[in-house]
Amino acid sequence: MNPLLGSDIRSMAQRSVLCWLATADASGQPNVTPKEIFPVLDDEHIVVANIASPGSAKNIRANAKVCLSFIDVFAQKGYKVLGLGTEAQPTEDGYAHWVAPLRAMAGERFPIHSVFVVRATAVEPIVAPSYRLYPSETSEEKQIESALLAYGVQRSEQGEL
Q: For 104-125, how does the pLDDT look when each residue is reduced to its tens digit (9 = 90+)?
């Protein structure tokens, strides 16, 4: 059986600068916020640092259904992860397990107030419309070159973005 959060998804998450966490309050009012520190922890969990998100924390406590998405802005591809979110507090058993990879990423730069633990229930790819509308003429490399031009970004002498 293939893991829900396999190597392709892990790789894409590592290449993504931000993820977007969508939550909804008890009445169903949606809220979407960017998150900067969010590793794929294992085959079914993504952990997200709660640095400054009291609204997301309140929503997750009221409604566990979440959606987390991330893309590589140059390749214009990514993933949408549907799941159930919980909030792990520093005073709870198991918190050290959830926060460890976040602390490794954040160091002392950001205060981590709690951890949003997303247990994935479904994963869907996100791709720019060009991949679907013009599959014979759209490649990842062409999308990257187009995005570099649009964003005014140049590759380093080593070819890195």
A: 999 888 999 999 999 999 999 9
- Could you report how far apart the first and last alpha carbons of the chain are, in Å? 35
- Domain coverage including residue 161: 128-161
Cα dihedral value 78, 83, 86, 87, nearest 10: 10
- Assign residue 80 the CATH number of its domain: 2.30.110.10
Q: Tens of pLDDT along 51-75? A: 999 999 999 999 999 999 999 999 9
- As a whole number of angstroms, the longest Cα–Cα distance in the chain is 54
> pTM of whole model > 0.70?
yes
Cα angle 126, 130, 136 (rounded to 5 degrees) comes to: 115
Cβ neighbours of 52 (radius 10 Å): 12
What distance in Å separates the CA atoms of residue 69 and residue 119, rounded to the nearest whole number?
13
